[in-house]
Structures are given as structure tokens and as C-alpha cells.
Amino acid sequence: MGLLRLLVLAVLASEPGVAGGAETVGNASEGVLEFSIGKFRYFELNRPEDAILRHISSNVSFVIFQIHSQYQNTTVSFSHTLLPNTSGTGTDKGLVSILRPEESMCTWYLETLDSKPVQNMAIPLSYSERDPVPGGCNLEFDLDIDPNIYLEYNFFDTTIKFAPANLGYARGTDPLPCDIGTGRDSRWRLLYDVYQYFLPENDLTQEGLLEHLQRMAEVPQVKANAIKVVTLTANDKTSVSFSSLRGQGVIYNVIVRDPLLNTSAAYVPAHTYACSFEAKEDNCSSLGRVSTKVFFTLFALLGLFICFFGHRFWKTELFFIGFIFMGFFFYILITRLTLIKYDVRLILTAVTGSVGGILLVAAWWRFGILTFCMLCVGLVLGFLISSVTFFTPLGNLKVFHDDGVFWVTFSCIAVLIPVVFMGCLRILNILTCGFIGSYSVVLAFDSYLYTSLSYITLNVLKRALNVDFHRAFTNVPFQTNDFIILAVWGMLAVSGITLQIRRERGRPFFPPHPYKLWKRERERRVTNILDPSYHIPPLKERLYGRLTQIKEFFQKEQPAGERTPLLL
């Protein structure tokens, strides 16, 4: 019966109408889909179908058949009977078909359990006996030979896992043992290059994803288009973590290389947006919360004012700096210690940040310690500069995956800034106003439109909140939106700094101590009776007078005329 079924499939597949080009499109209406080696095919799957690959060359040792969709699951199996070790279900799945001698045709079974039709793209890729077999030494997952990349994500990081590969072998021969010997003649000589590819920003379309997946399926295209993040040896754990980029499409793939034979093979690429398309709230299409937009819009308005007028309005700037200081540390504390919802946390952070701003202003008003206030100002600028430093490829160095090394280095850079500028405090203050105030506008942009520049500080916040984030690579895309917003950030910063330096030329560096001024003014009023302010009643009497005026305003007007009795 199995032979008869293959003959029927071959006859059906030989009918005209099945295109064979670089890309073919079909809806699987004939009940069978015919594929060609290395040719992508688009089709809509709404019921079980058979896929067939014919005319396989004799020098092909194994074939990897892979199928992709955006977010709806598809099942691919060797037979109609779905078993864990012979089938896989997901959005990016593939199977390895080891060919027998004289075998020139492969078949697979495709189906979906989704109620809606699924738009898929599939391709079979062939490899010779010299090429390593992706997933050939699988001991962790269900398939006997598993070429798939398994992907997990949360708010903080995205982790990919894959099974180790094995050396290639000819048709009709047994595969080499996976765990016998670790010499140059075993799988332990293989190397794994992990690649990352970013989709265009704000592109959530299905067509865009399937088009870009074509650049990540075969070895030459992967090397030409993607970014190599890390190379793993056979002794390393086959698991890599990345920073999650919510709403940003990312495709991952792994190329296994045999350095002795100079051959390679690609795993089945996997993609993620670090969000759900089917969630009712906070899905990929509506990531920005209203509370986030309100918070960062108000924060940006204050920051824009500080960018251009911060040094002149010294107390307002101190409130801004105190808000950042207290709000940042309070958000970390409340997130790590409680399970309060995000919106409530944001409200509490705003309240606590405001209290921190008021306290810093009050400390300046009462004590007037300029060094302390400028230390806070310098540390905020140092925090941003340190965050920018680790936002560069420097942050992905292996040495900084250690939390101790990272936080010590980060703190040293942050503290170095106020120390360097301690001799020119006005310049330090104006620089802080320009850079910090303008960066608040960047954060507001991110609430409405994705930009990678927000991850300058968000990656530091993630590392402070999540104990496992130190393992993650923090690569981000840098595309058109980012260049535009970077130009806006730079323009605002330079304009604000230049304006404040020119306006403050010839003026006192900082305002005098407010408490001393108030005390001196009060003593002057007490001793100088010619000063009109000397005759101003005390505050208590003035308040009482105001209340009396308000009370009289609401009293009913008395009628005019004689009201006293006549004297007899």
C-alpha cells in the first residue's frame, strides 16, 4: 500500500500547472504540492495536504524540508500518523529526510489545526554526504534528527535552543556515534555560527516576513545578509540569549561548520516579534499602553523645557534630576519585590519621583550645598554616557556577561563624569540639561513609534530587574527611523547647550543660597520701618482677612432704610 500511495502521488504531481521557478504560488487545491530543490513555494493551507519532491540527485545524502508561517501553527510529518518523533508543529518547522540508496523521491504530510487558512512558504534543501547533519545528535527534543531552532521569549530576553549536529555520511551507511570519542574524527570538531537578522522596523506584515525568511534559509544567503553574533564550539551549551525587542521582527539561524572538510549546513530559521498577534490586550499591533504614553509625554515636555532653560530655572532642573533619581531606583525596587500591575507601578513611580524632586529642591533651598546637587546632576549624565557605552558592540564582549564586571565598570564610568567636570560645574550642568532633556524626547517617541535608541537605557533597566539578562546579547537594528530620531536628539541637544551657554555668558555661575537670602530679607524687613513691606500684616492675619472677605461676599445684602426704633 505504501508503494501504491507513492505511485499515485507521482502521477498526481506530474500533472501540468505546478510551477517550477525561484518562487511558486499555489493553494494546494489538487491535494498534492510538488516542490523542487532550493525553490521557495507559497501556498495556502486549510486542509491536510501531501508534499512531494521528485528527481533527487544521487549525490544528495539528506534533504531538509522546512515550512514557515507568521503566527499560525502548521504541522509537518513523515506520515499521516502524527507521532512525536516523526512530526513537528509550529510556525517554523522542518524535517530531515535521510535518503536510502537509489531513492529519488521524498514525501511529507502537511496540515493545520487552525480554523482559518494559513499562508505558508516552504522549501526543500539538499546536502551531500560531506555536509554536517543539523540536529543529528539530538538528545533533548522529540525528533530523532531535529534541525529546528526552539525559541522562547519574555519581556526581558529571547532564548534559542538547538540540537547538536553530527558529521555527514553517505547513503546506506550508519551515522557516526555522537558521544564516543572527542577527537578530530568525531562531531566535536564542528562549530556553530549563530546569526541574527532584523526585519524592517514597524513591519508586521506576513508578506514582509516570508520574503525576508528567504534570506535566512540557505548558507550563502545567511552569511551575506545576517549578523554573526557568536560562534559556539561543540563543548558549549547549544543555547543563546538575546534582548527581547517587542514589536520588532527578528529571524535567527544557526550554521554548523565542519572546519576539516570546509563544509556547512543551515538549521531551520526561526522568527519572533517578542509579542503575540492573538492576544486581546497588548498584542503586537498595540504595544504602547496609554499609561506609558501619558507618562513619557509629560516627562518629555518637562525634559524639553530643561533642555533649553534648565540652567536658568535651577530649581526646576533640580526637580527633574531628583525625579529621575528617585523614580529609577523606586521602579527597580517595586518591580523586584512586588507583583503589582504595570499601570499601578508607573503611577507609584511618578508619585515617588515627584517626592524625590521636591526633596532635592528642598535640600538646595535649606542647605545650599552646590557640590551635592551637582554630584546628582553629574551622576545622571554619567548614567546616560555609561549606558551609551554599553549600547555599542562593547557591551556584547564576553567579559561583560559577568554581572560583577559589568556593574563595576558601569559605575566607574558614571562616577567619572562628575569628577572630570568638578572644576567647571556650569558646563557640566548645561551639558546635562542638553543631553538628558533631549533624550527624554527620544523616550516619548518610542511610546508612539518604535526606535532602538530607547534601548540605550532600557537594557540597563532590564539588567537591573532580571538576574538572567546578563547572558543576553543586546544587538538592536539601526534603520531609517533610528537615524531620523538620532538626528533630532543631536539637534535638540546641540541647540539647547549652545543657547544656554550664550545666554548665561557674563552671569553668575549659579544662584545664591535661597535660605540665606530669605533670612536676610526677613531681618531687613524687621529692622527697616521705612520699608513698605515692614507694614505688611503677618501671614495669619492676612489669611484671616481673606476668609472674612470671602464670607462677606456670600452674605445676603441687607435692605436699605431705618432699622433702629424711634426714641420716645
Automatic annotation (TrEMBL):
Q: Which domain of life is it from?
A: Eukaryota
Spans through the membrane: 294-311, 318-340, 346-365, 372-392, 404-421, 428-450, 483-501
Where is each TM7S3/TM198-like domain found? 297-501
Which gene name does the record give? TM7SF3
Q: Is Signal given among the entry's keywords? A: yes
Biological process GO annotation list?
cellular response to unfolded protein; negative regulation of programmed cell death; positive regulation of insulin secretion
Primary localisation category: membrane
Q: What is this protein called?
A: Transmembrane 7 superfamily member 3
Q: Where in the cell is it found?
A: Membrane
Instruction: Enumerate the UniProt keywords alphabetically.
Output: Membrane, Signal, Transmembrane, Transmembrane helix
Claim: Calcium is one of the keywords in the record: no
